Amino acid sequence: MPSETMASPEVKVSITASHDGGNIEVISKSEPVVSGRTAKVTVTVHIKPDVYTEFESRAHSQYFSFRSFVSGLHSSNSGGEGDDGIKLITVQYVVANARSVSFPEAWPGYTVCYTSGSLEPCDDDSWRRNLATRYVDGKLIWEHVHAANGSTFFSYSPPYTYGRHLKLIADCSARISARGGSLERYDPVVESLGQTLEGREIECISIGNGKLAAWIQHRQHPGETMAEFFAEGFLHRLFGVGKDGELDETTKKVLDQYRLHVIPNMCPDGSVLGHLRTNSVGANLNREWATVPGHEDYEAPTLRRSPEVHAVLSKMDEIGCDFFLDVHGDEDIPYVFFSGAEKTPAWGDRLEHLHGYFISCYQRANSDVQKEIGYPPPDSADDALKYMNVATNQISTRFNCLGLTLEMPYKDCETNPDPANGFSLERTKKLGANLMDALVDVHPYLRAEGQFWRAFSKEDGYVIPTDNYKEQGFVMLKKRFYSDVRPHDA
Ligand SMILES: [Zn+2]
């Protein structure tokens, strides 16, 4: 490489998405416009689509993550007398194909995440939001002033890397094998339920002495990285990670009530590939839990297309399921919310009351939770049958159990607004840790007989969620159901 570090080195902005979970394609970079000791550059990028999804006849996209590396800046005290090098550079980043993503209606109100730290766990708190992010003429645009040489990550949501995933598994394993540890009596096991098509393990962590089986799975949609931060919050509390294995009283209760089965990442291949919604061959895992009417020729799950779902469902059939939670993120709605198995064959008084009660318990533990806003339920039982390939519907019906999908925002969480940080990693992990409190409270009723809900107060009731959450000027979303993707003008 020719040296460019002569008296006045050229300022360079270099873009890469080579980290795991990276996704970007550079389209163009303008020549720097220099004014005094500052410069301006425009970098135009495209989000790369996932592998084509046969079931939905489209290639999904929305998630992106890249590293911008700046070199050649002269900090104010580096050059000394007579230094006229560039001190800072303003880069305008333009995502030129933002209009063609899976949920373009979700861009307004979104702010890009960035950090000049690393992707290591200790740097979680360094992520911030660029409040000047805007969606204009089908493009997502923001400016960033780089005042120092080095790297800045920009990401749709902070990546949860495969390295971090392995560390999470190792941390749980280390607690299990710790000498004199208090966990032994809860029979903890870390196992692989099978391998993905690219050969990654589908890890499941099981622990607890209780009679009821609770399954909690995360990140079926790999670009919903918050789901694995949630898993980390829950697992750290469950195993006393960072607390010398010390378990709090609520956690001990949960371990006496349940046997928990936790899958921190359902789609590790898609996660590493920087996909939004699919594994390495384009399967949207949350449409792979059954063959559904109208798609009889699309058999699901299969080992060739969706071994992740095949493995987990087989294990569930073997063990049973009394509580199911599927953890996701939603591109559009700036709230934490749940959707259930409304109008599926299992739905009735019992599940409706359990659903309402569980959310109330969760809300009492964490004020980011609410029950009024969310996806409207399907119109009819027939409509619901079309979605029996969605995990929550399939599992609730298959095991006649409470099953819910938890959605967290990519934006801010407007129950407790915090624009500069959005729904931060700290809040995400805390929400995960608080699942423990809701599990304890709902336990007595999960398999109760009779009209147990007569004991519930009115505020614990089921509320039909709406996505019409802005009174003034709100454009009603094209009705979506379970993050379903419809043609934009259908
Ligand atoms: Zn999802």
From TrEMBL:
<dbReference type="InterPro" id="IPR040626">
    <property type="entry name" value="Pepdidase_M14_N"/>
</dbReference>
<dbReference type="InterPro" id="IPR050821">
    <property type="entry name" value="Cytosolic_carboxypeptidase"/>
</dbReference>
<comment type="similarity">
    <text>Belongs to the peptidase M14 family.</text>
</comment>
<protein>
    <recommendedName>
        <fullName>Peptidase M14 domain-containing protein</fullName>
    </recommendedName>
</protein>
<dbReference type="InterPro" id="IPR000834">
    <property type="entry name" value="Peptidase_M14"/>
</dbReference>
<feature type="domain" description="Peptidase M14">
    <location>
        <begin position="158"/>
        <end position="443"/>
    </location>
</feature>
<dbReference type="Pfam" id="PF00246">
    <property type="entry name" value="Peptidase_M14"/>
</dbReference>
<feature type="active site" description="Proton donor/acceptor">
    <location>
        <position position="407"/>
    </location>
</feature>
<dbReference type="Pfam" id="PF18027">
    <property type="entry name" value="Pepdidase_M14_N"/>
</dbReference>
